[in-house]
Design brief:
Length: about 240
């Protein structure tokens, strides 16, 4: 199974064009089916410890292999990875969730190949403000959440602000966290991790360790949306 996935992706990496892809569509379909089996196991496994996920289909959590090249300097038409993102209401919901992909290092989107992530790379401004307020008022709570997750996970600090945002006191234990714009715990699996027969269970074990982190972020997202709904209802009544 894994040899089929990696073999196809490696070939695609060296032949990333429509002519080659069309000629090897059967190999693509076989590789995609193999990854889909892994994705379905992960979806079912996550639901066992995180009931907030709810019922999700494969289409709710996986992606097309075609790249969006409209605003990219890299015009390669196809991704060199297969990914799954398991979040409440699906990948487009805006909620934080559990991400895993198997890929080939491409020097562009994913220079390190495989990736596991817990969280979200974008929070709506309203949710981000609430999240920062929660972190600021919570003392060591957010720090403890990160430290309690699997030790292989690290906090993505890319795109962090250079200083604590306005409205928050600097010089506290939470300075670095208040500057974050991405709230995601990451792990870059190596080849041995990917080839392990217990891959699915190993990924689920890491995911499970990050559930409190997910709950914390999604609480802020849910609150921000309920507040918006209440304001909208008030406008209608007026």
């Amino acid at each position: 199974m894994m040899e089929r996935i990696l073999g196809f992706l490696q070939e695609l990496h060296g032949n990333n064009n429509k002519v080659w892809f069309d000629a090897h569509r059967k190999e693509y379909q076989a590789a995609r089916e193999a990854f889909s089996d892994i994705a379905l196991q992960l979806i079912a496994g996550v639901r066992e410890f995180d009931r907030n996920i709810g019922p999700l289909s494969l289409q709710d959590c996986t992606y097309r292999i075609n790249r969006d090249i409209r605003f990219s300097q890299d015009k390669s038409p196809y991704k060199t990875h297969f990914g799954v993102f398991i979040a409440p209401q699906g990948k487009k919901s805006g909620y934080s969730g559990y991400y895993f992909h198997i890929g080939v290092a491409d020097g562009q989107d994913y220079p390190d190949g495989h990736m596991l992530g817990i969280g979200n790379y974008f929070c709506e401004p309203k949710a981000l403000k609430i999240l920062r307020e929660d972190i600021d008022a919570g003392g060591n709570e957010f720090d403890n959440l990160i430290r309690s997750a699997d030790r292989r996970l690290y906090l993505d600090r890319d795109n962090a602000l250079k200083r604590v945002p306005n409205g928050f006191e600097s010089g506290t234990i939470n300075d670095d966290y208040l500057r974050l714009r991405n709230f995601c715990l990451c792990f870059k699996p190596d080849h041995d991790f990917i080839m392990n027969p217990d891959l699915v269970q190993n990924v689920l074990d890491i995911f499970r360790s990050g559930k409190p982190f997910i709950d914390y972020i999604n609480r802020a997202i849910s609150y921000s949306r309920k507040d918006n709904e209440n304001r909208h209802q008030e406008d209608i009544e007026l």
